[in-house]
């Protein structure tokens, strides 16, 4: 059942579609609204078009059809005003700058004040205390991803787009981030759209999970995650949580998304 959307939608996609040059249909004409201040997870089979959808919302790919509005503006405008941040699986940090240097650059580009204490707080939040002055090459893949998350949060975007940002992060740190990050998003009222292949993570982090069909992506289920917050790792074993995980898996299964490559339960 579709959840109720309170307040003005943060992001409105109308008739959004993407056909790549060469003819690959990645996203079928799709209407999706993401409510302001909510966290929404997109799940679907590998290759179904999740990243394509997110990159269009980020203004990094041009739609073949349809429109995107972020608070009434096109993505390019939001991007220009530094109103949105992305953290993708490939963290794309500048190799010659430290973790702090990468974050400071993002702030300068966004014309935001560089507040050393606030940066240190963010670095600690993502578990990189002691690594502020380290360059990306000296960090593990998971640590680089966490640095990219800190960088994305630093500019306090209205819209945060995360594409499998914890892919290389170890399980314990992942659980810690799943507890800490939503607190920050909620305190700031950030609209967050998260792509993950972990159903448990989607349920843990989100107010709503949108299940996409195998390629070309279209919405097959829209599941409200009306579980209390804050949520802790041990909550994943409670019946209410498990019921939501089951509902997402059932929708994925019905859509044929589990046929080739099962999605991770963890
Ligand atoms: N830059 C690109 N050029 C051409 N085809 C692409 C490009 N990026 C993705 N695709 C194709 O679009 C489809 C969806 O890809 P993607 O959005 O990355 O899926 P997901 O993130 O769900 O795994 C795939 O068939 C992929 O090969
Ligand atoms: Mg992807």
From TrEMBL:
Source organism, top-level taxon: Bacteria
TM region(s), chain numbering: none
GO MF annotation list: ATP binding; ATP hydrolysis activity
Ranges of residues in domain ABC transporter: 11-239
CDD domains in UniProt: ABC_NrtD_SsuB_transporters
Any Pfam family hit: ABC_tran
Keywords of this entry: ATP-binding, Nucleotide-binding, Transport
Claim: Mitochondrion is one of the keywords in the record: no
Family note: Belongs to the ABC transporter superfamily.
UniProt protein name: NitT/TauT family transport system ATP-binding protein
Organism: Roseicyclus mahoneyensis
